[in-house]
TrEMBL record:
Pfam families cross-referenced by the UniProt entry: Gal_mutarotas_2, Glyco_hydro_31_2nd, Glyco_hydro_31_3rd
The enzyme's E.C. designation: 3.2.1.177
Glycoside hydrolase family 31 N-terminal domain sequence ranges: 56-217
Keyword ATP-binding among record annotations: no
Source lineage: Bacteria, Bacillati, Actinomycetota, Actinomycetes, Kitasatosporales
Protein name: alpha-D-xyloside xylohydrolase
Cross-referenced InterPro entries: Alpha-glycosidase_related, Gal_mutarotase_sf_dom, GH, Glyco_hydro_31_C, Glyco_hydro_31_N_dom, Glyco_hydro_31_TIM, Glyco_hydro_b
Keywords: Glycosidase, Hydrolase
Catalytic activity: Hydrolysis of terminal, non-reducing alpha-D-xylose residues with release of alpha-D-xylose
GO BP annotations listed: carbohydrate metabolic process
Length: 777
């Protein structure tokens, strides 16, 4: 929200007040509170008839400093509130020397000079990261009487801002006005399904605004050298999170707000949906599944979208008996004959025609208006109401419906919707409707995820969720929502996914081929490549199916080959998944995350790193032309073995069998033995593909245990010393191989043969060490 009219004036009807100086200080051992008048006080009389801001400063964890600015403190304080996790045993240090105050939390410090005009400086290693200067802390009252607390933090020259959830607008947020407010707006506007009041910059820090309601951002858009954020409230709380690297920032932020759970290994396989409004029954489902098998395309999950239930009755959690007369038998056959997991669509709404509507109304499980009536409308479902997840009994009731489905054989749920939450209602627990609008999705997805964790066991719970807010990353996976079916929509989807990854979310997917409309064969094949080089992969559309043979035979080949490639990459991908769960680093990473020191990577939004070591540049053109940037070093094309030297831009043209997919200089990429499924013993028969090894370095490669639930199955250490490559194995019980990509072995301690991409060395079971003397190209 903009309050000013240019540099000099306020907007009509706006009266703003800003902290001007420090009038008094209350010191505690690990925190302090500043009392800030909104004008300079030179006499006792000036202390009258004027506001005094209370600004509390503390630290919940090393490298994190919290600020809470309050005008009037008498508000009732109705929830909800984000759940935050403080660091056990952490204590900040407060020092005072004359007029200088300092709060230190590890490498991050807050400096305040109580004798100078108002200024909060956040520093690390003697460098000012950002400051709240004049107009940096305050409040504004606008013409309608609403009260807005606000803060402004400085932006340095060349400083770029990222994050704020899954946003499909330009990747770099400078110059944008952003409202953190859940909306069902598709992927082609400024609205977003997943709104997160957290941003980070390329200057080494991030900022989290701890407010579940609407947070309004002006990012170099009102004051071009500032990031302003405001809330309609008497108080504003935010946290400055130090890095110094973007990965460090995300690690600290997710420690504060929650780390992603580790999804089950099978969820990384290919998902196939019935699509949205198309007609389907068991015969159609079987045709799809058999068609994939006949074309040798491995399928991991089959998804039933909305119309598994009867029309006008969403959600009643009951299979349409005319279309699916034997759901339990159908699900059993899908599992036994095709080894599939099953997903079904749900939402948090109860249509009036559903028998559950009367039941939920009778027990008080639906959100109500102030007059006691159930809140209803006809948008989406006729007469639909909203489950009140603030009521523990309603949560239990909803969860019990899901348990019935899991008992029938359902393995996971697509938790659609959760954005269009009314504000003219009364919640069971008295929550503030404005704050609950964004927060509702957290209760919804948490309820479903807890059921799956309880029923399926630890490590087996996974959602396919559309809406989210702060903390939603704990309940993966999330997908990008309703996009159109063209190259532009494919690119905007990627922008949204990279933005979400920089907002603390580790796992992300999208509708392969696009949702609305029908893609051309060219779009479908390129989207298949992109989709199967994402953390999770789902074929899904609205009014047309997404089975590859509906496009052309080449689409079948592309789908088969890239599905099998993803399965071979599972030892590598699941290690990236473990990093997301352990550190908050997303599987799909903006180039900035891996190369913060390369300014050429700071604005890139049409390519990404998949895990630590794979650069992916999807093709967004019908003729196969792609422009992409290669960071410093010798990179190796994963599919062809061609070497590419950076830094620099490249323009290339690719057929549908390939795309820019480059292995990082010196990387060791583990390839699994099987390409039939995502879940298998990844260490057995693993091939370590070594790319342009760097002299004098050792690369550690950890192979997750089968299914990923028991840590690490094997560890390999690859060292280059001059012309000698040595690979040492720990825990490798079965045979394993080393592929020296682009290199020839003059001699080795294991049988060697020439392969298409280089020299292949085979280590029998129990081999702990392989050494080769190389001629490196």
């Amino acid at each position: 929200m903009k309050f000013t009219d240019g540099y000099w004036l306020m907007r009509e009807g706006v009266k703003a007040s800003y902290a001007a100086e420090v009038a008094d200080v209350r010191l505690d051992e690990d925190r302090f509170t500043l009392y800030a008048p909104v004008r300079q006080v030179t006499s006792r009389g000036q202390t009258l008839n004027s506001p005094l801001l209370t600004v509390e400063c503390w630290s919940p964890a090393e490298g994190v400093i919290g600020i809470r600015s309050t005008h009037h403190a008498g508000a009732a304080g109705r929830g909800p509130e984000f759940t935050l996790h403080t660091q056990p045993g952490h204590t900040a240090k407060v020092t005072r020397e004359g007029s200088l105050l300092q709060l230190t939390a590890g490498e991050l410090s807050l400096h305040v000079d109580t004798a100078a005009p108002w200024q909060l400086d956040f520093t690390a290693h003697g460098r000012v990261l950002t400051s709240a200067q004049a107009r940096g802390t305050g409040f504004a009252v606008v013409g309608d009487g609403s009260h807005h607390s606000l803060a402004q933090l400085t932006l340095g020259v060349g400083e770029l801002v990222y994050g704020l959830g899954e946003r499909f607008t330009p990747f770099v947020k400078n110059g944008q006005s952003v409202d953190i407010w859940q909306a069902d707006g598709g992927t082609a506007s400024e609205q977003a399904y997943k709104n997160v009041p957290f941003h980070l910059t390329n200057r080494g820090y991030g900022v989290f605004v701890n407010h579940p309601g609407r947070v309004s951002y002006e990012i170099g858009s009102e004051a071009v050298g500032r990031v302003q954020f405001s809330v309609e409230d008497q108080s504003l709380e935010y946290y400055v999170v130090y890095g110094p690297t973007p990965k460090d920032i995300l690690e600290r932020y997710t420690a504060l707000t929650g780390r992603p759970a580790l999804p089950p290994a099978w969820s990384f396989g290919l998902w196939l949906s019935t699509s949205f409004t198309t007609s389907y029954d068991e015969e159609t489902v079987n045709r799809f599944v058999r068609g994939m098998a006949e074309r040798d395309i491995p399928l991991g999950v089959f998804h039933f979208d909305c119309f598994w239930m009867r029309e006008y009755q969403w959600c009643d959690f009951t299979w349409d008996p005319e279309v699916f007369p034997d759901p339990e038998g159908m699900l059993r056959r899908l599992k036994e004959e095709h080894n599939l997991r099953v997903s079904v669509w749900i939402n948090p709404y109860i249509a009036q025609k559903s028998a559950l509507f009367a039941e939920a109304r009778r027990h008080g499980y639906l959100v109500r208006k102030a007059n006691g009536d159930v809140w209803q409308w006809d948008l989406w479902q006729a007469g639909m109401a909203l489950v009140d997840f603030t009521n523990p009994d309603a949560r239990q009731w909803y969860a019990d419906k899901l348990r019935t489905l899991t008992g029938q054989g359902v393995d996971c749920f697509k938790t659609d919707f959760g954005e269009r939450i009314p504000t003219d209602v009364v919640w069971h627990d008295g929550s503030d409707p404005q704050r609950m609008h964004n927060y509702y999705t957290q209760l919804y997805n948490e309820t479903v995820f807890e059921v799956l964790s309880e029923v399926r066991g630890a490590g087996e719970a996974v959602l396919f969720a559309r809406s989210a807010t702060v903390g939603g990353q704990q309940f993966p996976v999330h997908w990008g929502g309703d996009c159109e079916s063209h190259f532009g929509a494919m690119a905007e989807s990627l922008r949204g996914g990279l933005s979400l990854g920089l907002s603390g979310f580790g796992f992300w997917s999208h509708d392969i081929g696009g949702f609305e409309g029908t893609p051309t064969p060219e779009v479908f094949k390129r989207w298949v490549q992109f989709g199967l080089l994402s953390s999770h992969s789902r074929l899904h559309g609205s009014k047309s199916y997404r089975v590859p043979w509906d496009y052309d035979e080449e689409a079948v080949t592309v789908t088969r080959d890239f599905t099998r490639l993803k399965h071979r990459l599972m030892p590598y991908l699941f290690r990236a998944a473990q990093q997301a769960a352990e550190h908050g680093t997303p599987v799909m990473r903006a180039m900035l995350l891996e190369f913060p020191g390369d300014p050429g990577c700071h604005t890139l939004d049409r390519q990404y790193m998949l895990g630590d070591d794979l650069l992916v540049a999807p093709v967004f053109s019908a003729d196969g032309t792609v422009d992409y940037y290669v960071p410093d070093g010798t990179w190796t094309h994963l599919l062809s073995g061609e070497q590419v030297k950076g830094p620099g831009w490249r323009r290339e043209r690719y057929g549908y069998d390939s795309l820019p997919l480059l292995a990082r200089p010196g990387s060791v990429i583990p390839y699994g033995e099987s390409d039939d499924a995502a879940e298998y013993d990844w260490a057995h028969g693993v091939t370590l593909r070594i790319h342009a090894p760097l002299d004098g370095t050792t690369v550690v490669t950890r192979i997750p245990a089968p299914g990923g639930r028991d840590g690490t199955a094997a560890v390999f250490r690859t060292t280059r010393d001059g012309d000698t490559i040595t690979v040492e194995a720990e825990g490798a019980l079965g045979p394993w191989q080393v592929l020296l990509v682009g290199a020839e072995a003059a001699g080795s301690s294991a049988p060697a043969e020439r392969a298409a991409l280089g020299t292949l060395l085979t280590a029998p079971a129990g081999t702990a060490r392989v050494t080769a003397l190389l001629t490196v190209s």
